[in-house]
Design a protein that fits this description.
With 96 residues, the chain is mainly α. It is 73% helix and 0% strand. It contains six helices and no strands. It is elongated, with a radius of gyration of 15 Å. The relative contact order is 0.14. The mean pLDDT is 91.
Length: 96
């Protein structure tokens, strides 16, 4: 839950209420609250709108979004999760 925590930090620093961001996204406040609490995942399209609304660092938040996607895809109960992630990183670096 890297992205939800950071979004909340940025929003609080900006003194922006959740309802204002929700209105910009054309969603209800409860849905936005679920994004910030990590209960519900947002799409990249929603994230792009939030970034614009908060005037936040685009690359930072997209990186956190991607990291959360990886974390959600990996089973943390398995002792081999770290090794699996290292394989993915090595493969990614080889493709560059």
């Amino acid at each position: 839950m890297l992205l939800p925590n950071r979004l909340k930090e940025i929003r609080l620093q900006s003194n922006m209420p959740q309802r204002k961001i929700a209105a910009e996204l054309d969603i209800d406040t409860a849905t936005y609250c679920k994004y910030e609490n990590g209960v519900m995942r947002m799409s990249i399209a929603q994230l792009e709108k939030i970034i614009k609304c908060l005037n936040a660092n685009h690359d930072e938040l997209l990186t956190l979004w991607q990291a959360d996607q990886f974390c959600n895809a990996v089973s943390t109960d398995m002792p081999i999760a770290k090794e699996a992630m290292e394989i993915v990183i090595n493969q990614y670096q080889a493709q560059k």
